[in-house]
Structure prediction request, 580 residues.
Amino acid sequence: MTNRHLHLIRRQILLLILSALAFCASATVSRTLTPVEEELLGLCKESAERRDYRALHDAAVRLQAEAGTSGHGEAADYGLASRLYAMVMGYLAGPTDELYARVARRVESRREGKDDMATGYLVLAMGFYEMTCGRDFNKAASSAFRALRIARSNGFCETETRALGLLASIYFDRDDKEGLRMARECLRTAEKCGSLASRYSGYKTMAAYMARFNKFGEAERYADLADSVITVAGIAGERYYITSLRGDLCFRKGDTGGAGRYYQKALMESRGSGPEAVWYAATIYGSWLNDQGRYAEAIERLDEAENAMKGHKAPLVSWYGDLVKSEAYSGMGRYREAYEAHQRYAGKRMALMENEKEFKSLELKYKVAEQKMENDRQKIEVMEKSRLATVVSAICAVLLVVLVAVAVVYLRSIRHYRRLVNVNLTALSREKHLRRELAKAIDGNGGGSGGAATDDRRSSRADEIYRRLVGLMEEKRVYLDPALSLDALAAMAGTNRTYLQEAIRISTGLTYSSYINDLRISHAIDLLTQSDSAEVIKTLAAASGFESPSNFYRRFKKKTGVSPAMFRMQAKEGDAEQEG
Prediction:
């Protein structure tokens, strides 16, 4: 086998480009389908993956009719494209050319609208027809380039994969290394999409290219990956192609016997996959037989390939079979048949060569358009970055205003708390001073003549009890005992609870509980202002004579207006300002 065998591989790459066309748009279309259309769409996808083109065609016809009734234009377009694909791929009898014209008119009618997913797979269906039935790779490339532009402009991963695969197959036939770049992009995009059909397309294309450039290890690795996807996805109709590719690899490595076995096995597998599959497997097997000098067998296989395609349009590379036949007849000494076969080959090749200049022009236009798209993308990125910078600046300005507002509110609250602390400290200081003055006045009255200052014995008794009470509080600090009770304090002051409550009320205007708690709060304030230790806050309630910390905090805040921690902080700041 020589390098010319690989012309046929390009044909098989093409056959897969749209093999998952149903899958390409199913996720997008299905969001607005009726239940019947959902079912028909699923049948289309399953049939395409199984290569059951008759079932695909029937489901597509029904889907098109159902979508026409419900008004789902995108679903109707999908049915139309699937019908064309099924007829071309399965070589089904019917008005294929007329169906292609309908697809072309539908694409033209959408030209004024948005290039969406429906337009993408309609254009791909046209490209498949143009490559297979129209035998015009120039038009096929034009459709593929347009589909690629639509896919990249709108982020349609599946459509991009198939457009790249179609272009890779065209470049493969032209022995152009530009196709290898497209094949790599096809695989990279397929792996990003994640679908089995897309990955199989990428693996298959890369295996063919690696074989083309004699990178046998990589070709076998990609062939193994494609084979594994066939097993998982159940694409039995593609098995013959991978088997045939393994035959190519064996032959190119010098394993002639292995190559023959693979080619023969591929032919057997193709007989259950449709006429085009038989044409491919028989043609490439016949080419190998011709290289081995087995001319009669080669002609027999090539005749089988031609018979498989009777009633169908010949593949674009059908010239290859005529070339091999010419060589086989020549080897057998049948020169008249060899000449006739060569004439057929030359005529088909000349028809293809006429499109070469157009293809070059088309390729240049595509590259210019691709560069323009890249420039537009960069402009959009610059605009997005500028917009992002503006948004970030606006957010920063808003945050700055919010921070300034929070800072103003915080400073005002700090000043408010500071004023509260100063007021409380002043009030507590005056309260202590008044208590001392009251105690002195009581002592002075007790030392004078009884009845000289007042004849009110009740007031005199209250003053005496309060004087003893003040002494207990200042000398023994009995108010620090959390268990201190009214009865116990009355016993300490040498009176009963009634007289003690009366003395406290007459002298201070407070109840017993308020009087004791005020003393305890004053003691807590002394502890806060005299110590910097953090542990003071934790033990402050117990050290001030309160049984419950919650009761202490509640009474402290009611008395001072702030929490103990805030009180100490503000008191320290006030002292620091006075020192400064």
DSSP finds 26 helices and no strands in the chain. The CA atoms of residues 368 and 574 lie 76 Å apart.
